[in-house]
Specification:
Blueprint (H helix, E strand, L loop, with lengths): L6 E3 L10 H15 L18 E7 L2 E10 L3 H8 L11 E10 L2 E12 L2 E14 L3 E8 L2 E13 L2 E12 L5 H25 L11
Parallel strand pairs: 1-6
Antiparallel strand pairs: 2-3, 3-9, 4-5, 5-6, 6-7, 7-8, 8-9
Length: 214
């Protein structure tokens, strides 16, 4: 059975075929490991961010999702916010977030996070590669982690109040759980997590990066 209060590693895939309890416990692990699957600057939020738009569409096992919201950050400040990979350690639940620059515009990020879902703790680990195009776009793809496929991009558009951040992504879960169950968790989880990103960005509005001054 899944232990309460103990981190669940999402790569524990051995199912005891002779035990129904083992099967049920493994299925619960897979369900819990689906919920907090986004990798960058994400944590559970309290309430939805005003003006947030989120859409999720599934084609077979592949999910396409998009989100957008306005922020008071300038285009330059929004870019530095999105590329502050190690700053994710300041978010609740993030245990480690280490960035390793591979070239002028390529960064590998290794991140470990603990998520509290109901009565359970879930530990996630991912290795992502980010490609930066200052100050317009950041793309990423999963090199290793708890999904079969996870890739996407952030686009930054200036507006009169600051900027608009737009996200597009593709995600294929690694699970035996029926996808109609995943559908419900995917949409609700995305709304909560993008709300948290937007609120965190808003808190940074009075902290202008040195490189954006002038």
């Amino acid at each position: 059975m899944v232990g309460i209060g103990r981190p669940i590693r999402c790569d524990e895939r051995v199912i005891a075929a002779s035990s129904w309890l083992g099967i049920i416990g493994a299925m619960i692990k897979r369900i819990l490991c689906l919920l907090p699957f986004l990798a960058s600057h994400m944590a559970w939020g309290d309430g939805h961010y005003r003006g947030l738009q989120v859409e999720v569409v599934r084609d077979g096992p592949m999910y396409a999702f998009s989100a957008s919201f306005a922020t008071p950050l300038t285009k330059c400040a929004a870019y530095h916010f999105l590329t502050d990979y190690e700053g994710a350690k300041n978010l609740p639940g993030v245990v480690e977030s280490a960035a390793y620059r591979q070239s002028a515009n390529t960064v590998r990020v290794e991140r470990t996070a603990d998520e509290r879902i109901l009565f359970f703790n879930v530990r996630l680990h991912s290795v992502m590669e980010y490609t930066e195009r200052p100050y317009d776009r950041i793309t990423f793809t999963q090199l290793a982690g708890d999904s079969k496929t996870f890739q996407g991009q952030w686009d930054i558009e200036p507006n009169e109040q600051g900027s608009t951040l737009r996200f597009k992504g593709l995600w294929e879960p690694d699970t035996l759980i029926p996808l109609f169950i995943v559908d419900h968790f995917a949409k609700n989880g995305l709304i909560d997590k993008f709300s948290a990103i937007a609120k965190f960005a808003e808190k940074r509005k009075d902290i202008l990066p040195t490189r954006c001054a002038g």
